[in-house]
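Why predict the complex rather than its parts? Because the way molecules touch one another can change local conformation, and only a joint prediction can capture that. The input here totals 287 residues.
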Amino acid sequence: MKIDSFNRRNFLAAGSLLSAAALIPNRAGAAVAGPTAIAQSATPPAVPQVAAPPGRLTFHGIDTYHGATIGTLRVDISMLEGGSYRLVKSFNTAMNGRSDGALFEGATFKPGRYEMVMHVGDYYEALGTKLPTPTFISRVPLRFGVADARERYHIAVLFGPWSYSYYRGS
Amino acid sequence: MAGITTHVLNTVTGQPGSGMRIDFSVLDGDTWHLVKSVRTNSDGRTDEMILKPEETRVGQYELLFHVDEYFARQGVALPDPPFIEKVPVRFAVFDPKQHYHVPMLATSWSCATYRGS
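Output of the joint prediction:
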């Protein structure tokens, strides 16, 4: 709805410029350009061309122990259905711990309750990091709710062998 | 001191997270078994240790923090469902002679945990 009202304001602003332009005599005496052409030239370049940004889910996990996600992190995504979490997708992080593009977007991105399980134990084991057995954290559940799937949800995670935090990023 | 303890902090207000419900479970085979439910006191801690040293074994444990209920009671407007709702923190005790302090730092849009002391 924010976008709609922005468009409306933008349209009204363009409309008032149009009215002003119509009062200015055309110096070259050429035919006055149609409303569409004037609207385009009257739009300041700084005004973004607003299109509804598609809702999507993305992920970025940063290994704060090594200072960069130097290995591959496996993440299992589940959704809560009828009281239990059901696996909907597994992925391995690509460059720097990010998901390779959107995990879900547009019509495939549904509101609801999500859980991403990060395989942090396997990640550090593959890198040969010396840790006790069993490791303090191994499979880290990140639960979050998606209230409006038309919005962007970026799950940002900072993790190490002894801690993690996550938040809604952008 | 060994055993398991926790501490909840509301990092929006900088105050202890008092009155937050925490469910403590232990992994038995493939199943999580609820051991007890507790509520944090005015300092955001629990009156008794989550698990006493003599009861602590090597194994997998879970603290489920009811963060959404806490912020709802604080009068914070939350979406439905909330982004941060009930937060499970799963961790292992690898040496029962050591102390495992597992705090929760929470807002309604983020949370953090770590092995403290």
